[in-house]
Design a protein that fits this description.
GtrA_DPMS_TM, membrane, Putative flippase GtrA, transmembrane, 123 residues, mainly alpha
Length: 123
């Protein structure tokens, strides 16, 4: 259970990065849809580093196989997140609220996938 709470804490930081970048880019005139690409990429990079060290406490050196599993889960999760976000924005939801809802929905999928598929051999 502590691991899940650490995941939520790291995810909160990732959410702040994601939503903050979306907010700034939309404020400066970028489309909410286009703003999400750099926001997601930045959030994935931040949460990768924090989840590896804090959530799953991986002591083993990074491996190519682990990195490929992480990328696969991150892209799948980001794709599902982006699809839900797009539907919400196109349905007139405010972009930052759409980030929050889509992130919350995908949080459970991401945790289980990272735990079982990405870090299963290292935790």
């Amino acid at each position: 259970m502590q691991q899940f709470f650490r995941f939520i804490a790291v995810g909160s930081i990732g959410f702040a990065v994601d939503a903050g970048i979306v907010f700034l880019l939309v404020y400066y005139g970028i489309s909410p849809i286009l703003a999400r690409f750099p926001a997601i990429a930045s959030a994935v990079a931040v949460t990768w580093l924090l989840n590896r060290q804090l959530t799953f406490r991986v002591n083993a050196p990074k491996s190519h196989a682990e990195a490929m599993r992480y990328v696969a889960v991150a892209f799948l999760s980001a794709g599902l997140n982006f699809a839900l976000y797009s539907v919400l924005v196109l349905s007139s939801m405010r972009p930052v609220l759409a980030v929050g809802l889509s992130t919350f929905v995908l949080m459970f999928f991401s945790f289980v996938s990272y735990k079982r598929f990405v870090f299963a051999q290292t935790t």
